[in-house]
Amino acid sequence: MKRTVSFILTLMVLLAMIPTVGLASEAGEELTYTKPYLLTLNPSNEMNVVWISKESGEGFVEFGLTEDLGTTVAATQYEIEGLRTSITPEGYDPDPAKNPELNVFQQIATLQNLKPNTIYYYQATTKVGDKIEKSKVYNFKTAPVNGEDFTFALLSDLQLKAESPATVKQIGQHKPDFIIYGGDLQNTPWKAGEWFFVEDCYIAPAEIGKTWFEIMQQEEDGAELLQYTPIFITPGNHEVDDQRIMSDKEMATNNPDDWSLSIYMQMFRPLYPEQEYYPNGKHWYSVDYGDMHISSISAFRWHPWSGFEAPGWIMFDDISEGSPQVRWLKNDLKTTDAKYKWVNMHWHMLNRGNDGWYPYSEPLVEKDGTVKYPHGDYAWNVLRPLFEKYDVNGVNFGHSHVYERYLINDVNYIEAASIGNNYRVADDPYHPSGYKPVIEENSIRSFMIITKDENGLTAQGFAASGPNQGQVFDSFIIAE
Ligand SMILES: [Fe+2]
Ligand SMILES: [Fe+2]
């Protein structure tokens, strides 16, 4: 009898050691589309652990100061609406409505009352019926509240580009404390298979393994990305749900309901609690990380059909003087007492290129079909004076997929987005203001790491390709 009890006990111990479904498995977990990712508006004392599951169920996060964890928080589940798989494994129908809707659920566990500048370990668990899937045990560090050091990375515009995984892995190997991402995540937000791997969903052969979450959650070779570090993100033109409004005149002019950032805003819900999807909704936020204040605004536009001039560039969110976003930004920059100020926006208000010659404001189409911009350039005439007046140290862009920076009246304007490809053409004109970049380097892929220490904010541009891969090719002081 004693031996039987002993055998049963041994069996129970052995059974307990068998991994539950998908435990710590690699990509393609049974219950989840993504690993956990971290979002917060209060990085010194609160963290949202977020992940995407395939079925409705329950989620919870266990966390603590050691890998033994100890405290459990239940996740709130949201259904993410608007994502679709492809109508056949060979491709999507261009009309989103003709592709099957995909069930996608988001789990958000909010870890509160955390200590600043402290490492926390956590593990996310998904439960659907009797199936349980646990993530690995990851960790993150809360932000300091005073002048202590931190490091962050700048990137944007991954867009399923061929070299994005290799570049982003190098960023992850620097183990930044947080990431600032300047917009353009993939190409078409309603296509679920551009966010993460979806079984039987079309993906172009060249884009396999290059979905946004797969790139941003790499953990091979010591990379620490979204599972370990919060991301502060801003929308670009590729975050509009239905990209046909950029090429279809009828849609762009007649269907305001199609002008929506809904999928992007659902994915990053804790940064946008109001979930206002339509133009001039609340697409901005700000956050204090240590002694740096980060303001994220929505500034992007596109030329929808027949090139630049018919009927002209279209803006999504207004950045004119007195617009809700500009009123907010002015107050936000005016009221912060942070030592350093940073602005994250997608539109590259200073890069070389033809598009810089078309002022960022509402187009006016003349009877003869020509287009004028009587209001001038709002980025240059409205935003730039605010940045200067309120001593903004750095403004980062995306959109041009270049490495380029300018210094104007003590404000650094930076695009460090040659992550996966590059759009620079040799004879691109300089900005009409006459300002030229301090540096442009587009012969290699690259990224930027910025360190705040006792010397101030120091930035380094790293080569991500070429003979000097891994080396710093551009080093400069942003603020002392
Ligand atoms: Fe882009
Ligand atoms: Fe863009």
TrEMBL record:
GO terms for molecular function: acid phosphatase activity; metal ion binding. Residues 42-142 form the Purple acid phosphatase N-terminal domain. Residues 1-24 form the signal peptide. Pfam families: Metallophos (PF00149), Pur_ac_phosph_N (PF16656). The keyword DNA repair does not apply. InterPro entries: Calcineurin-like_PHP (IPR004843), Metallo-depent_PP-like (IPR029052), PAPs-like (IPR039331), PAPs_N (IPR015914), Purple_acid_Pase-like_N (IPR008963). Residues 151-403 form the Calcineurin-like phosphoesterase domain. Keywords: Signal. This is Phosphodiesterase/alkaline phosphatase D. It comes from Desulfoscipio gibsoniae DSM 7213.
